[in-house]
Predict the 3D structure of the following.
Amino acid sequence: MFLKVEKENIIDGLQKAASIIPSKSGAAYLRSIWLKAENGSLAVMSTDSNIEFCGSYPCEIEEEGLVGINGRYFTDLLRKLPQGTITLKIEKENLLIEQGRRKYKLPVNDISWFQNFSPFPEEKAVFWSGDFLQDIIERISYCIGDEDSMEAIACMYMKPLTDHNIDSCGLNGHQFALVTFVNDDIHALLPEEGILIQKKYLNELKKWLGEDEIELNQSEKRLYLRTADKRETFSLPLSTYQYPDYSTFMSRLSDPGISKLTVNRKELLEAMDRLSIFNNETNRCTYFELGNELKLSALGQDIGQADEIIEVEYSGTISKIAFPTRNLIEIINHFQSEKITLTLTGTEGPCGISGEDDAMYNVIIMPMKMVDDTYFSEEEV
């Protein structure tokens, strides 16, 4: 292999490729970035054995070829080089990297380590907004379980509904986030049973996504995404777990006898942020005393006590309820509405949160069980 490439043409792709490979642990072949020069372009490929990234960038090729190198070292080196032309050439068992009077050598990997990457399936591919998908992930991922052992609830679930809507949701046992949206192309692409994407893959996908339009397709086992210019492809495995039936607790939000609290989002957020100072490991909740006004209070042993009163609109019979402070703050931060509404089903039942300017976005949080005036335990959805 012998080629010349401009740093500005390749560095972004290299950083995306390097972000998915293990930095130190794992087999050496998984720490590799593969460079393949052919047909006037340089392909940059990497995998962690599950996620696959492949980008293609313009270059001047003197001799075609394939080489694997330590991805972190190579990317760090090119990132620190100035803009301009970089020459890459295989020399014996090394990759020679030159830029002007700068010369570096990195050892190459055994070519037998290379395995072909999954090609993007062209048939039935659809286009989608990259920033819309990124927003869905942002609004859901914090409610997804972190441990792989949690199986389905360590995944984001996307399911087509009979009315052409699509549900995208995440659940961790104490919180549930649901984004419902309409897209006929995505609806037709998804299987009837929906798809599951593990949270650890969502984090990497979110880094790759931008504001531009993307192509989307799937096979039985993988989800494929590609930039509209077909330059970069990102694919990940789909999970096959059975997702819980979330309609059982969503339906409780419309039961007779529910209580509703409407409050200025910013005012509540700022008040709870101040009250969080008075939380500790033992007392990590905020009390809501409900009536014509909302009284918020927090008590922390050896810290002190805080009370604030804010104006609200309230209808219902629940007089007192407790929520984990930091969890509720995180949820409120994902809304943009001026006012949010809390739908209370009971002091220990699911609480739904929605906002007028956050159409089709709903979050459920479980209150904390008020055992006594000091200690609390968190309920599960």
